[in-house]
Amino acid sequence: MNQDIGFDEAQYGALASIAFTALFAVTSLFAGGLADRYDRKLLTVGSACVWSLATFVTASSVEYEQVLAARVLMGLACAFTTTSGYTLIRDLVPKERASLANSIYGSGVYLGGGLSSLSILLDGRIGWRGTMDFIAAFGVGAAALSALSIKGDPKMLDQSKNNDDTIRDSKANNLGAPSRDEAKEETSPISDVTDVLSIPRVQWLFAGSFLRFCSGLCIGVWAAAYYKLAFPDDAASYAVINAFIVGLCGVTSGLIGGYAADKTAVIAEQAGLEKSTGRLVVPIVGSLLAVPAWWMTVHASDFDSAMIWLAVEYLVAECWFGPTVAVLQSEVGERQGGTAQGLFTLTGAIGNLAPSILGILYGQQTGADVNSSLVLSGLLGNGVCAGYLFSAVCFIVSALQNDSDEEAFS
Fold it and tell me: Which is nearest to 298 in space by CA: 211, 387, 398, 231?
C-alpha cells in the first residue's frame, strides 16, 4: 500500500497510532456511555457496517489523506463494537460462565493477529486492494450475522416493558402519562465515570490491567526487533512461528483462563468468599508465572529455546483478560458497564506509552561499541517482568477488597 500510494514512515506511524489507536481509545469512553443508554444490538451492527465501509474506502484510496480519513472512521466505529459487545455478554450469558464468554470474545485479538500474517499470502495473490475488499466483505457478513443472531438488547426490552407498566398504572390511577424523567432514569456521563472510579476493587483492577497492557505492548512492539538482533539468521522463521504462537497459544491461554476463573469463582463462593476474589486468582497466578517464562525468553542462548519459552509465556500470561473483564462488569452498576469498558480500553491506550519509553531508553544506551541485543534483552527482561510482577500485586489487592469496604469507601 505504502509503495502504491506513496507515504513515508512518519505517515505510516500516524496511521498505526493516532489515526486509529488514540481515537479508538478516547471514543471508547464516549461509546461506552451510549452503550449504557441505547440499543447495543443496533450499535454493534451499525459499527460493523461502518468499519466495513471504511475498509472499502481504504481499498479504493489513491491518496494518503483518503487512507487517513478511512482509518479514522474505522477507529471511531470499532470503539462502539467493543463496549457494546462486552456489556451484551454480561447481560446475555449466565453469570457462572462470564469469564469464559469474555475470554472467547477476547480471543478474537489473537486469531486476528494470526490471520493478519496470512493476509500477506492473500495480498500476493489478489493485491492489497483486493485483500482490503475481501476483509470488508467479511465485515459486512459479520454485521449481517450479528443482526440475525442477536435477538435483542435485554436492556431495551426490559425498559420497554417497564415503561408500558408505568403508563398502564398511571392511567389506572388517573395520573396521566409519566414524564420523560420518570420513564427513564438518566445519569450524566461524568457521574458514571466518577462512580466507576470510586470503587476500590475497580481502581486496583485498572492499575493491574494498565501494567499488564504495558508489558504486553512492549512484547508486541519490541519482541520482533529483539529476535532480529539476537538471532539474525532466523528472522524469517520467527515471523511464521510467532504468528503460530500468538494465534494458538494466545487463544488457548485465554480459553483455559476463562474456564478456570469460572471454576475458581464457584470454589470461592463455597468457601464464603466473593466470586470476584475467586476469578482474580487466575490473572494473579498467570502474571506470576509469566515472570520467569519471559525472563527465559529473552535470555535463551539459542533460537529454538527462545521460541519455546515464548510459547510458554503466552500460555501462562494471556489467561488474564477474560476473568478481569468479568470482574469489572460484575462490580459496576447495570447502566455503567459500557462506561467501565470504555475506561478499561482507555487504560490500554495509555499503556501504549510503555513501548515508546522503552525505545527512548534503548536509544540512550546503545552506541557503536555496545551489544544492542544485550541492551534490548535487559530492558525487555526487566521492564516486562516488573510489569507482570506489580500487576499481580495489584490484582491481589483488588481480590482482597470486599463489598463492605466498597460501601464504606463510597
Answer: 231
For the record, the C-alpha cell of 236 comes out as 524469517
171 CB burial (10 A radius; 0-12, 13-18, 19+): exposed
List, for residues 70-123, the tens digit of each pLDDT value: 988 998 898 888 889 899 999 999 999 999 999 999 988 888 776 776 677 787
Give 25-71 pLDDT, tens digit per residue: 888 888 998 999 899 999 999 999 999 999 999 999 988 889 889 98
Query: What phi, psi does 145 have (nearest 5°)?
Result: -65, -40
Instruction: Please tell me the predicted confidence (pLDDT) of residue 189.
Output: 79
Buried/exposed code over 328-344 (b: 16+ C-beta within 10 A; e: otherwise):
bbbbbeebbbbbbbbbb
* Distance between CA atoms of residues 276 and 267, nearest Å: 11
Identity of residue 275: K
Distances (CA, A) of 108 to 90, 105, 409: 17, 6, 37
Q: How far from each other are the two terminal CA atoms of the chain, in whole angstroms?
A: 53
Is a pLDDT exceeding 50 seen at residue 159?
A: yes
Q: Measure the CA dihedral 158/159/161/165, to 10°.
A: 130
Q: Where are the alpha helices (DSSP H) in 249-280?
A: 250-270, 275-279
The type of residue at 323 is: P
Number of H helices, E strands in the chain: 20, 0
Query: What's the rounded Cα separation, in Å, for the pair 102 and 221?
Result: 25
CB 26 within 8 A of CB 342: no
Q: Which residue has the cell 475497580?
A: 202
| pLDDT for 408 | 45
CA angle 20, 25, 31 (to 5 degrees): 110
Residue 362 has a CB neighbour count (10 Å cut-off) of: 18
Distance between CA atoms of residues 328 and 124, nearest Å: 43
Angle between helices 281-297 and 372-400 (to 10 degrees): 170
Span 281-302, mean pLDDT?
A: 97
